[in-house]
Every structure is written in C-alpha cells, then in structure tokens.
Amino acid sequence: MTHGPGFTEEVLRRLAGARSFERGLGYLSSVSRLEIGEEAITATVDGSDAYGVELTEDDGLTGRCDCPFGRDGNFCKHCVAVGLTVLRQVDSVPRLRSAAAARTRLLETWLTSRTGEELLALVREQLADDRDLRRRLELRAAAAGEDTGILRERVLSLLDTRPFTRYGYVEYADAHAYGRQASEAVTALRALTASGRAAQAVRVAREALQALGRAYGEIDDSDGLIGNVATGLAEAHLEACRTARPDRVETAEWLVRYLLDETNEATDIDLFDYREVLGDPGLARARTLVVAAWRANPKGWTEKYLMERLLKAGGDGVDALVEVHAADLAPNGHTHLVIARKLETAGRAAEALEWAERGLREADPERGPDSDLVAFVCERYERADRLADVVAVRRNLLRARPSLAAYRQLRAAARAAGTWEGADRADALASLKTLDRHGAGHRQDGSLLVDALIDDNDLRRAWQAATDGHADRRQWLVLADRLRDRRPADALTVYRHCIEPLRRQTGVGTYEHLAELLLSARACHRALGTEAEFATYLAALRADQKRKRKLMALLDERGL
Fold it and tell me: DSSP states of 189-251 as a string?
C-alpha cells in the first residue's frame, strides 16, 4: 500500500458527527508522533491527557482512541485531528508509507541478524525502562513456569485497587487505567489454562473473582470497563473448569457460596452455564444449598433469583415457582401479578385470576394496587363479558386513589357497560365532590372534580364547581378559553384577574404569557362591543409597564 489516504474530510465528518468534527479542528496543533505506516496511521494527541490514536483503512476508515469517548467505540475528536493532519500533508503520504515499510524491513533484518545474547540484552534494556512491558512479560513467564504461586501473586496484584485510590475510592479519572491493568489478569488466567495447568487456573480465578467482587463497590465504573473485566474473569474461570473438570460437588459448593456472598458486587455468574461441569451430582448439591438458603431467607433477592433459576432449569412445575414468589408478596400486588402470569402461561387461567383478584384485595392502599395488576384483572373480566365487574374495579380504584386517569378509566368501562350516563357518572362525580369538600380532591394542580368535568366537556358544571372555590389558576384559564365565545364577560373577568399579578413580574416567559392574556381579553371586549374600554385599559397598562423595554417590544410585535 503506497498510495495516499483513502478518506476525505467528508468521511471524517460523517464518522465523527458535526460536533466532534468541529472540536477536532481545535486539536490539530496537539498532534504529535505521527506515523503513517502500511497497515495503520498512529499518533499521540494531547488533550486533558496524552491519548493514543490509531486509524486503519482495511474496510473503510475506522478509528481507535484511548480517550473515554473513544473507548466507547466512537470516532472521537482526537481521531478527527489525526485524520485532518494526514490530509494536510496528503502529497507526502506515499513517501511516508514507503519510508515506514523500509524502516520495518530494516528492523526485521537487523533483529534477525542479532545473536540470542544480543536479543536478550536488548529485551533487558527495554524492561528497565518500560514497566508495562515488564509486567506483561512477567505474567507470560509465570504462566509458562511451574510455580503457580508467582502467577497468583501477580494476578491479585493486578486487581489491587490501592495504587489507584483516592480517599479509599477509585474515581472515574483513574478507573480506566485500573481497568487496563486488571484486564491483564484475564489474559494471564487464559494463558495458564492454555499451558496445561487448568486446575491451577480454576483456583487462581476463584481468588481473582472474589478480589474484584470485594473492590467493585469502591470503583466508579460509569463506563462499564471494570464490569467487562469481571465478566472476563468469570469466563476464564468457566473455561478452566471445562478443561480441568474439578470435583463436581466442591465446585457446586463454591459457586453457590460465591453467588450468595453479599460482598460480591462485580458479576453475576449464571450457575447453569456450569451444567456440563457440575453434572448431576453437582447440580443436586447446588439445588440442596440454594433451597436451604432460600428457606432461611425467602425475602432475599439473590436467594429468590437463584431459586427461580434452579426450578426453571430443573423443569419443576409452576407450583414450586408459585411457592417461591408467595413467600414474599409485594405490598402493591405486583408479586400476585407475577404468580398470575405464570399460572396463566401454564394453562391454569382460573387460578391465575384468583391470584390477581387476591392481589387487588390485599394491596396496601398507600402503595397499590399495581396498575398492571388492575389492567390484568380488567382484561380478563372483559374477555369473559363481565363488564359490570370491570366497572366495579375501576370505581373502587377511583375511590382509593383518585386521579383524572382513574376517572377516565372508569368512564371508559362504564360506557362499555352502558351505565355511564346513569348512576355511574353521578356516583363518580359525587365522590369527587366529597373529596373536594374534605380537601382530599385538591392537588397541587387544582381540583380533580373540575378537571373531570372539563374532560367530560361539561363546561357549565365545571364553571359552577370552579365558582364554588374548587379551581386553581390553570383551570380557570382553561374554562375561560373554552367558554370565551359563549360567555365573554365571564372569560374577561378571568383574564383580567390573571393579568394583574404579572404586572409585578419580569422575564421573557412572563411577557409572552401577559401578551397572550391581553390578546384573549381583547377578543372578549370585541365580542362584548367594548373595544374602547380595552384601549383605555391597554394604554394604562403600557404606561405602567413602560420601563420594561422587552415587554413593550413584544406588545408592539403582537399589535398591542
């Protein structure tokens, strides 16, 4: 490959997006150590840190950067800066690539000509200056050697957070460096298995998982990098177990103990990924331990989860799953719904409905019932043409937890049953009126009775309810807007009342609202034939507010 770059500024813009592309323009002077090779373009870009960038053109342009944004797989501003730097010396690219190829050949020839002793001296020289290289080679040597203790020590040291902590916590700025170091532990464990020492890898992997699990709660892993390391450790452990075939019962005991350990926050090993490793003896032992743990703590999340996974994997019937969930019923009825769905899936619809109905009865009024549970019951009643029962459920819900949504759901159910225009609507409105009378129907956003009447388009009764003292400013304005053509004088009173407090306020939003109210007031005056009165009112308002230049400009713009 001796030609120029296979990309353009437009390609860079498309890959990065407009924002990152524009920001990349500001980093052109920060690009250093640019190398344009046969296979890749590499450089360093100085930002909040020195970031390494690599561009490749195998199947279209791709970019890699070790900045936080780039590590998420994004074509970042640093990639843009390197790409633009290459394009600005496009005529030199073929020559630079040829020179890079020549340097590579020269290095290969020179290395090939060195004796073993000379190469060893060269490696030692590099190890003295490059701690990362030294650590990687030490791991390879430990994986290939006979002393597993050395490898164990190195793996655990890689997972030690202390060199990265500040006040006992690994902050976001340091988490990536720690994650890069910790990921080497995964490589070492896999190398140990590959070298024929899978049994030792099992033991070291267990310690590594526990070490990271204890430390995970003290790391800011916002980008999920440490979680990926934990997943890698779990996979390395499973690979080692599949190769080494450790004692099945002992392995089951360790797995269950590890999964139930409250200090383990790093990963969730799936017990049933180990089916082949555990075999029937191990699975039986795991079942015994999980059941015992669940019976000792039936409300524990991990215990419940493991028990459910165990029962599903073992093909146990739905009754066993129901027993697990029934031991810890949520106060809002959600667990009743979980049970009902499992029973219905098993073809036991009648029992499913019984559990759901029980959930409605037993739900704590302060915390339920769960809206999905209510929907489940109502849908089953509708299928059975039990429309009166749907109305009863919706009516009880409105009384227990009054809201406009509950009122609408009752209205829809009663209309379907043909009872809305009769007793059901009257009963619902009477309930809301009683709530208003006792203050329970008043919310931060006004009276529920007024909202219900407006939603019914019963504006006459809504106005009366508002006049009785059951409305807030928002509701008054809704009524005024809806009734302006029929009752302009009443609407005008509302608009004038809402305008007055705005005289003492400032801000663009206030001015916009004031202008809208004045336009509405003018429309009322026109309907009443009192436009001269509005002109006098507006002139007085402008004189009073003349110091607010932005308001004056807005009123001019609106023809006021």
Answer: HHHHHHTT-HHHHHHHHHHHHHHHHHHGGGB--TTSHHHHHHHHHHHHHHHHHHHH---HHHH
